[in-house]
Each structure stands twice: as C-alpha cells, then as structure tokens.
C-alpha cells in the first residue's frame, strides 16, 4: 500500500513509519520538524539521543534494505505542497499524527494557545480539503485523536467508541433513538483541538464521502518498538520534561535518577494507557481494515489499560524503591475520577496488549537508566499553569 505518514518524525509517527515500511508498504514521511524546534524553544533534549532525519533514513535503509522518502512540509501552512504530494503519490492511506500534542505546552501562554489551535485545525482541514481537491476520496485517513475528547467526568457509563446512544422526546411525544458523538469535554486547549477535529471528520465524511478512522488514543508509554531497536540511529524519542513528558514515562525516568515521583494532587486521576509497540500495531490493524465508502467515521478507542496516577506511582515505586511526592496540581482537572472504557474494536481485530506489569522493568533499565546522564533535572517540574492563581 502507498502510505503517507504526516508527523512521521514524532514519538508515535517514527516507529509507525518503520513498522509500516517493514511490512512492505511504500511509506512517505511528511514532517516540518516543528517538534525538534520546540525542543530548542524549551531548551530541552529528549532523554534518548535521536538522530537527524537523513541519518535515521540511512540507518533504516542499512538494516531493512527499504527506502522511506521524507518531505519537509508544514501541512498547516503549505497547502499546495501537500496537495501536490497527494495528487502525485496517490496514497491509499494517510496516517495523520501532525499536530501539537502536549496539553501543558498548549496552556503556557496566549501565543501557545493560538499556535496549537491554528496548527492543529489547519493541519486537519488542509489534509481533508487536499484529498477532496485531488479527487482521492478513496484514500483512507487514519487520525490520531485522544481519549481526552470524552473528558474525565464521572458519568456512570462505560465510555463507548465515539458514539453515544441517546433517546430524545419528539414534539409528538414519541421517544426517538439516536446515536450522537459522545459529548465533547476537553480539559486543555490541545484536547479542544481534537474535539474540533471530530466535527471536521464528520462534515467531510457526510459531504465528500471521505473514509476516516479516528483513533482515540490513551497516554502512550514506552520508547522502543521492534523496528526502532534495530539500530542506534533508529532510537525513538523519550520526552521527560514538564511540558511534553507524559506521566508514566516521567515516573520511569524519575525513578531511574532518584527524583521523587511527581504525583499531581491526590493522584486520583484515572487515565487510559497504551504501549508504543501496541500503538504501531493498532495503526497497522486500522490501515488493513478501512471503513467502506459511505460508512460513517469509524471511531476506535486505542487504549489497553486504565490506571489511577497514584497507583502508577505505587507500581513504579514498588519496583524501584522510588519516593512518591504529592505536588500541587498545575492543571484544572477533577482530582478524582472513575474511568471505564470500551476497547472491543482493536481486540476484535487481533490486538494482544502489552501490559504495564510486563513491560516496565525493561523500560527502566534499557532506556531510563541507560540515558539518565542526559537528563536536565531543572526541566522536570511542570510549570505550565492552567490559570493564574
Ligand atoms: P510528537 O509531537 O512527537 O509528533 C508530532 C509530529 O508532527 C512531530 O514530529 C511534529 O514535528 C509534526 N508536526 C506538527 N505539526 C506539523 C505541521 N503543521 N506540519 C508537519 N508536521 C507537523 O507527538 P506524538 O506523541 O507522536 O503524537 C502524535 C499524535 O498522536 C498527536 O496528534 C497526538 O495528539 C496523538 N496522541 C499522542 C499520545 C501520546 O501519549 N504521545 C496519546 C494520544 C494521542
Ligand atoms: N501527571 C502527574 N504527574 C506528572 C505528569 C502528569 O500526576 O508528572 C498527571 C496529570 O495531571 C494528568 C495525568 O497525569 O492528570 C496525565 O497527564 P499526561 O501529561 O501524562 O497526559 P495528557 O496531558 O492527558 O496528554 C497525553 C498526551 C496527549 C494525549 C493524551 C491522551 O500528551 O497527546 O492526547 O495523553 S489522554 O490522556 O487519554 O487524553
């Protein structure tokens, strides 16, 4: 299959590109390297030493014998370059990772809010408009969305895969059954852009018959996949700083350098998780099982386990002896919530999840400890506040 991976230099996009190439697909990576520039802005480097794109691609050719093409396009700004690529390459599938993905970064200042909104919404709309203009409506769009679109209120129902069954009273007094998008309840500007992406998908799907799969992904943990581990120059990025580091990878790195685990508030926040190796496998499964033309947007919850933050800290602390600190929560979020999530679609397609208990130890010793001398401790605290307090 011809596949374009938008955002293919990033944490999820790079291992996905290698995995799809390894399966024999013809992969083109599109990325504007904005994530590397944000590292410069924040004056932080990933814990793992990532190679420049040309070195990454040479290493891939060396170990796999396969070519991956790289094109530097800002898909939010350079619409015509994206359009030309889609017209000329004629991809059967486009995997869309190319958005600003950190909630704390999106809340740092008005500039960061505006950048996140304009980058993410224009990126998604440009992609959909380009597919229509290129007359490629058979192209399957796979988007990486987030579990965070549902919000973390205790609604007392298991979160369904995208659509909620509701009963409305008509003017005649009859009861009408409908399926609507699960009500959006974003907890940050970043998450808000993902809820707006959903409306664009619904529109282009109805109006232009685009085939779209929206993967509502949980928090990704881990670093390496089978392919990124094949050569030192293929290593994946591991973010640990207060803006981009996600909770479990931060705890693993903190344990490795004897830094007390930074639990926000009571740690009663329940969140959904998935290992990076399962992420790439899920995208493979989604690509191999596209929706039919005319089918509504397919929404899949891409997560495998639910944990409370304080329970995660306990698991890591029990394994390593790390101290656990409860720090003031810089975010505006429910201090405690329950979370029950339906994830039948991917299990039905054959996903066999990697669980936290099986993968944590090797992650601590192979990555967090091995590269601990690259950690800048001053970059660990979360200093992006949701409101002026
Ligand atoms: P990342 O920041 O590492 O990767 C995103 C990539 O997209 C970067 O390489 C960046 O340079 C590129 N990019 C951003 N804007 C672009 C633009 N306008 N034009 C071209 N390239 C652009 O993020 P990630 O962790 O790989 O996440 C990828 C996607 O998965 C995101 O959309 C994110 O919302 C979603 N997701 C991530 C997680 C997670 O835990 N990492 C969880 C759920 C969902
Ligand atoms: N948290 C801590 N201590 C820390 C860091 C975070 O207690 O040191 C807490 C946060 O307050 C929050 C929870 O851990 O309650 C999760 O935070 P996170 O930074 O790990 O994840 P989040 O901001 O939700 O964002 C990440 C990705 C984003 C993706 C999302 C999936 O960055 O791209 O969309 O996970 S989800 O959480 O399911 O919405």
Keywords:
389 residues; alpha/beta; Rossmann fold; seven-stranded parallel β-sheet; three-stranded mixed β-sheet; binds nicotinamide-adenine-dinucleotide; binds sulfoquinovose-uridine-C1,5'-diphosphate
Structure commentary:
This protein is an alpha/beta fold and 389 residues long. The protein has a single domain (2-379), classed as NAD(P)-binding Rossmann-like Domain (Rossmann fold, 3-Layer(aba) Sandwich). It is 37% helix and 18% strand. The chain has helices at 13-22, 34-42, 53-64, 79-89, 103-106, 110-133, 189-208, 247-256, 276-288, 309-320, 344-349, 356-369; strands spanning 2-6, 26-30, 69-71, 93-96, 140-146, 163-169, 175-181, 211-217, 219-221, 261-264, 270-275, 298-302, 305-308, 324-327. The strands form four sheets. The chain has a seven-stranded parallel β-sheet, sandwiched between helices. A three-stranded mixed β-sheet has the order 9-11-13. A two-stranded antiparallel ribbon has the order 6-7. Helix 1 links the parallel strand 1 and strand 2 (26-30). The longest helix is centred in the N-terminal third of the chain and has 24 residues, at 110-133. The mean pLDDT is 96. The protein binds nicotinamide-adenine-dinucleotide (NAD) and sulfoquinovose-uridine-C1,5'-diphosphate (USQ). Sulfoquinovose-uridine-C1,5'-diphosphate (USQ) binds at residues 101-103, 146-148, 218-219, 246-247, 250, 262-264, 269, 271-272, 309, 329, 331, 333, 382. Sulfoquinovose-uridine-C1,5'-diphosphate is lined by residues 101-103, 146-148, 218-219, 246-247, 250, 262-264, 269, 271-272, 309, 329, 331, 333, 382.
């Amino acid at each position: 299959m011809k596949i374009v991976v938008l955002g293919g230099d990033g944490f999820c996009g790079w291992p996905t590109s290698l995995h799809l190439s390894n399966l024999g697909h013809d992969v083109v990576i599109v990325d504007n390297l904005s994530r590397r520039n944000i590292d410069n802005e924040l004056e932080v480097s990933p814990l793992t030493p990532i190679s420049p794109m040309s070195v990454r691609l040479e290493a891939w050719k060396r170990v796999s014998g396969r070519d991956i093409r790289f094109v530097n396009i800002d898909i939010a700004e350079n619409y015509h370059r994206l359009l030309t690529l889609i017209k000329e390459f004629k991809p059967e599938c486009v995997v869309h990772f190319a958005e600003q993905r950190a909630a704390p970064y999106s809340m740092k200042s008005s500039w960061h809010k505006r950048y996140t909104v304009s980058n993410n919404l224009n990126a998604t709309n440009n992609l959909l408009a380009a597919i229509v203009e290129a007359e490629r409506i058979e192209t399957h769009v796979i988007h990486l969305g987030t579990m965070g679109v549902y919000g973390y209120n205790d609604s007392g129902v298991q979160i369904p895969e995208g659509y909620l069954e509701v009963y409305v009273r008509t003017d005649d007094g009859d009861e009408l059954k409908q399926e609507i998008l699960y009500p959006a309840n974003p907890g940050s500007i970043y998450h808000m852009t993902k809820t707006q992406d959903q409306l664009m998908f619904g529109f282009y799907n109805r109006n232009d018959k685009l085939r779209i799969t929206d993967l509502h992904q949980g928090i990704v943990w881990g670093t390496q996949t089978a392919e990124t581990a094949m050569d030192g120059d293929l290593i994946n990025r591991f973010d640990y700083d207060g803006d981009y580091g996600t909770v479990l990878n931060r705890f693993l790195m903190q344990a490795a350098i004897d830094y007390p685990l930074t639990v926000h508030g009571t740690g009663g926040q329940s969140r959904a998780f998935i290992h990076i190796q399962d992420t790439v496998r899920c995208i493979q499964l989604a690509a191999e099982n596209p929706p039919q033309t005319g089918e509504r947007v397919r929404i899949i919850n891409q997560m495998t386990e639910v944990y409370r933050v304080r329970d995660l800290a306990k698991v890591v602390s029990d394994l390593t002896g790390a101290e656990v600190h409860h720090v003031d929560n810089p975010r505006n979020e429910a201090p405690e919530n329950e979370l029950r999530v339906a994830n039948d679609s991917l299990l039905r397609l054959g996903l066999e999840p990697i669980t936290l208990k099986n993968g944590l130890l090797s992650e601590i010793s192979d990555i967090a400890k091995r590269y601990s001398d690259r950690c800048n401790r001053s970059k660990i605290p979360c200093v992006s506040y949701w409101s002026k307090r």
